[in-house]
Sequence to fold (413 residues):
Amino acid sequence: MGKTVVIIATLDTRGDEVEYLKDILEESGHTALTVDAGVLGDPPFPGDYPRERVAEAGGRPLAELVEAAEKGADRSEAIRVMVEGVRSIVRVLHSTGKLDGVICLGGTTATALGTAAMKELPIGMPKLLVTTFIDSAAIGDEDITVMQTPIDLVGTNKVVEKTLSNAAGAVIGMLARELDMAGARPLVGLTALGVTTPAVQKIISRLEAGGRDGVVFHAKTTVLDRLVEAGMIDGIIDITTFEYVPMTLYPPEYIARLVGSPEERRERLRGAAEMGLPQVLAPGGLDMHVFPGTGIEAVPEEFRERAWTMHGPYIVLARTSAEELEKVGARIAEAMNAARGAIKMVIPLRGFSDASREGAPLFDPRADRAFIDAVKEALEDKGRVVEVDCHINDDAFAERMVSEFNAVFRGGR
Fold:
């Protein structure tokens, strides 16, 4: 059964190439819809979504953009409008069931257009960016497939045609493979850092033995948030809540650098709380600040008097203070209070990471206790906190985390 593929391009510069690609897709039994994001030149054909409609969807008449460009205006405003227009059209096509995959082709402008649109689509949907400038493909954490073209996509010749044929074949192959989700095991999202990986591995093995699958997110939860919103996650074991450290304590200039996202993120897993997903939390990684560098002199000056250690050759870990952990604890308790589903926090009393075991450089039970007391004080339901006399990476802790998760999971959403 044929599927619908959306092709995004500037038809004034890539019209022949788009037509060639469209023909291949349609010869294979699929429908190809073209979205024209060009502004200045005359396209060889209008496209299914012509540039006038794209500009309108982006909030400006095309005539205004053309007039401004002819007067020598900066291209950034026109690009912004067309990006927003493409994004809006793709969003509507997907919501109405008229989009099964997307291809974007071109240079830097097309890359900006394509990645913006593709980020509107759910994880797992076929997305292919065919670009002449792979260095500008800022795909972030998205599941976007990027194909580097060996030459510029100007005109059709046997090299361009082979490149476009490969691109079409890639998307056709993606569309042909449908995963039967019937009977799939429940999927549990887990958070990890290297300093909590042993715990995560032990928890996954226990989940699998109990008929569930675990999917791990390292250091940040942007993709986990999206999977939750898409309905693909059935529960969360948030063993590594490290993100709360930068999100609670850092000024804006630190956030993009250390949370790993260009935008300033101050919230995490809100969708899980609002949807009532079963959640079990732990304070993994809250005992540290994480900075890139090769020694304490590489970290911001205000952290240089802290206890510290190296995590590999290029990462510095500096200890969080009791005062900082009080703020983090209150913030986590606030999030737990707002959760609509069953939620618990399991706290290991002998260290929150490999770097804070007894005898390790970040060992500081006083600071850990400040966190525990802050969480308990701010929680409306004190019974949501469980203290375990072991280290976070001990077998006993993994056993207790899974036991508590089984209890909240049985309660459903």
Summary: The two ends are 35 Å apart (CA to CA). The mean pLDDT is 90.
